[in-house]
């Protein structure tokens, strides 16, 4: 089912339907601010496996995670490194992804990640509302391998069809600028991808940040 979240009535209905779908182990598509995302409950191994199958991802491809708040992130780690805390306090919600070690007790399967995971809190009201209801989700681009990333939920539906239970339309996305990625599991923390946020910008918060080779 597809819902136009640009109208209040359909937004409420759509988010409720998406929450129910995620909790039932199904896949959903929703706007994240930088892209339309294909999401699954991070703790539902079957749902994450189906997402991987659609994207043709092996276990060597780590599944990125989205959360609805910094408090949710705190619940996924034993200790959040100081650099990561300073960065997420400065740039979340937004276009910053950080890599940190997850708590070893977590009952999830997000790929062969050596105990780390990539996590972001997106800057989009629909995404935030959804994630605050569902908890952590594995989220990847809502396109099939080799296909153009969709700029609307309708375009995503043309590619993914009935493999996805709920599509949340948020209107055309802007320029698909990728999020910046910082590995905070390393010491010193390392910039892996300079996307929306530059190295110089991040160093105003974490001066010891280094750039990858």
Kindly list the characteristics that best describe this protein.
213 residues; alpha/beta; eleven-stranded mixed beta sheet
Through-space gap between termini: 45 Å
* Biggest beta sheet summary: 11 strands, mixed
**Shape annotation:** globular
Radius of gyration: 16 Å
Give the mean pLDDT: 95
Number of strands: 11
- Return residue spans where pLDDT drops below 50 for at least 5 consecutive residues: none
| Percent helix range | 25-40%
Q: SS-based structural class?
A: alpha/beta
Number of helices: 7
How much of the residues is beta strand, in percent? 15-25%
N-to-C SSE string, H for helix and E for strand: EHEEHEHHEEHEHEEEHE
Spatial strand arrangement across the major sheet: 1-8-2-3-7-4-6-5-9-10-11
Characterization of the model:
There is one protein chain. This protein is of the alpha/beta class and 213 residues long. Helices cover 31% and strands 21% of the residues. The chain contains seven helices and eleven strands. It has helices spanning 8-23, 45-55, 70-74, 82-91, 125-134, 153-160, 199-203; strands at 2-4, 28-31, 36-41, 65-66, 96-101, 116-120, 137-141, 166-169, 180-183, 190-193, 210-211. Strands 1-8-2-3-7-4-6-5-9-10-11 form an eleven-stranded mixed sheet, with helices on both faces. The N and C termini lie far apart (45 Å). The model has no long low-confidence stretch (mean pLDDT 95).
